[in-house]
């Protein structure tokens, strides 16, 4: 967006600023808006990422946007309408369903353009869910994180292709750069995770929920039959203590308890990827994008991903990683074996191809600013 004396005011809305891909993307776009000399506003219930928003040049407004209660959504619509009018907002960008309903209502009342990012392959198990999800398809332009999501939006909601922009999430190549990771950072993680010398870590990043495929990886490690391999499950349990116990019991039943580590959250994922001999994405249902996949690729690591959803578009089988049938521990075990047995030069070449292929934060920021400019120029 070119700067002008009448620079636009962009408001992003989301439930909170705690952690996750949606939240990090909000910070990255807030920074891009400010760098374009426009006014960057964010409304959410708050959280640790408020400070990065402010450091990036944005302003944060605290509203209880986590509520899914219809009355709460209505109250938030009133609050957002007031905010839009007081701050002379030019465009609202909604990133999650409950706050999107409030934002859409506020935009209807104020006439301000409404843009959405359709972040996930939202479930439709209950009869009302498609209606609830529908708000994410009401943007003048709907941003989709992958071609998979774009096709889903067209199929489910009848949105024409000309109203959809595919903008993949990106990585910051300066942050995810293997040449910047010193041995001390890697050693710190290896010690914290109790990894013996000489093991080959196979890392699965992802919160502890069953569809992320942790059990599939444990079954694969058992089938692989190599004592030098360590499965490292990196991610918060988010209160799912029963599932964490199930995974520990499964590892014991499979006879690989000493080859499994559940390490919780990690505050240094670039180092975690460097520590990994192989990074696995084992989700058993489609993901809209799969950010950890491109982060691992940016670090030049061999990546094995489930052959469904967004990773199909970011992992070229046999060139920048491998794709395997989801939920198939035998196929996953075979791919892990191939990755571990790569000759050093082949491993390096694969890593270089993978790093060169990943979308960047800058490309994502520029494409999103172009969406804003397109909508604002259309009036």
CATH class categorisation of the largest domain: Alpha Beta
Alpha-carbon distance between the termini? 15 Å
CATH superfamily of the largest domain: Glycogen Phosphorylase B
Instruction: Specify the helix fraction band.
Output: 40-55%
β-strand number: 13
What summary fits the major beta sheet?
7 strands, parallel
**CATH-assigned fold name of the largest domain:** Rossmann fold
Mean pLDDT: 94
Q: From the coordinates shown, what is the CATH architecture of the largest domain?
A: 3-Layer(aba) Sandwich
Low-confidence regions: none
Tally of individual domains: 2
Basic shape:
elongated
Number of helices: 15
| Order of helix and strand elements from N to C terminus | EHEHEHEHEHEHEHEHEHEHEHEHEHHH
The radius of gyration computed from the alpha-carbon positions, rounded to a whole number of angstroms, is 22 Å
Protein structure class: alpha/beta
Widest β-sheet, arrangement of strands:
3-2-1-4-5-6-7
Question: What does this protein look like?
Answer:
This protein is an alpha/beta fold and 379 residues long. The chain contains 15 helices and 13 strands. Helix 3 packs across helix 4.
What tags apply to this protein structure?
single chain, 379 residues, Rossmann fold, 2 domains, seven-stranded parallel sheet, six-stranded parallel sheet, elongated
